[in-house]
């Protein structure tokens, strides 16, 4: 009888051992599976964030190109009426005679406001700022691209200011225009070369 009890106890211990081993194996499988799932989810989330970041970068570049072209045209128009007002006064700007360059520039800006051009430039600047705000804290992989985009944005803002608030002499304005126009174009080209859209 004693043997029978020992056999039953021994079988129970072996059964408990087997149950413990199965439980441990199941727990390990769950932990490993959960870890793999977590890593995959984390990698997928990082991939998605990277894709969104790259879209934001490309949006800034698209806006810089489009808005830069508008600013280029508007700044040329300002320089043209400025020049005409100095050397061929009076000049008609926005249907008004301008006898000096201050009036010519003022009338040109009034024209830009009336035809919506100034609003388009200001809205474009605000849209770029919104995308730039989304680019803050770039990943290590995007740090250089972000720094270049910041450079482009800084140049763009300075260029945009030439239309929104023209100042200085005509010579200084034209020199600044040429410098900023060339700088913005070369920076955009550098970005497009280094980081082509996918």
Topology (elements, then pairings):
Elements: H1 2-87, E1 91-93, E2 96-98, H2 101-114, H3 117-134, H4 143-164, H5 170-194
Antiparallel strand pairs: 1-2
Helix pairs in contact: 1-2, 1-3, 1-4, 1-5, 3-4, 4-5
Short characterization:
Helix content is 83%, strand content 3%.
Give an overview of the whole structure:
By secondary structure, the protein is mainly alpha-helical. Helices cover 83% and strands 3% of the residues. It is built from 5 helices and 2 strands, in the order αββαααα. β1 and β2 (96-98) form a beta hairpin. α1 runs antiparallel to α5 and α4 (143-164) packs antiparallel against α5. The chain is rod-shaped. The mean pLDDT is 86.
Q: How would you describe this structure in keywords?
A:
two-stranded antiparallel ribbon, about 5% strand, rod-shaped, 5 helices, mainly alpha, 2 strands, about 200 residues, about 85% helix
N/C terminus separation: 81 Å
Sheet with the most strands?
A: 2 strands, antiparallel
The computed structural class is mainly alpha
Number of contiguous helices: 5
Cα-atom radius of gyration: 33 Å
Q: Please give the oligomerization state of what you see.
A: single chain
């Amino acid at each position: 009888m004693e043997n029978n009890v020992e056999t039953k106890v021994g079988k129970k211990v072996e059964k408990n051992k087997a149950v413990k081993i199965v439980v441990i194996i199941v727990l390990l499988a769950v932990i490993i599976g959960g870890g793999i799932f977590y890593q995959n989810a984390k990698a997928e989330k990082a991939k998605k964030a990277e894709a969104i970041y790259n879209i934001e970068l490309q949006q800034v570049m698209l806006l810089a190109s489009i808005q830069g072209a508008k600013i280029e045209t508007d700044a040329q128009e300002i320089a043209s009426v400025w020049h005409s007002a100095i050397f061929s006064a009076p000049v008609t700007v926005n249907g008004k005679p301008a006898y000096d360059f201050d009036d010519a520039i003022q009338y040109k800006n009034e024209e830009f406001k009336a035809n919506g051009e100034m609003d388009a430039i200001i809205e474009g600047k605000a849209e770029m700022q919104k995308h730039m705000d989304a680019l803050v804290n770039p990943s290590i992989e995007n740090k250089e691209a972000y720094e270049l985009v910041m450079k482009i944005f800084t140049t763009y803002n300075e260029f945009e200011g030439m239309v929104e608030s023209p100042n200085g002499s005509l010579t200084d304005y034209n020199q600044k225009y040429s410098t900023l126009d060339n700088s913005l174009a070369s920076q955009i080209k550098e970005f497009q070369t280094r980081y082509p859209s996918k």
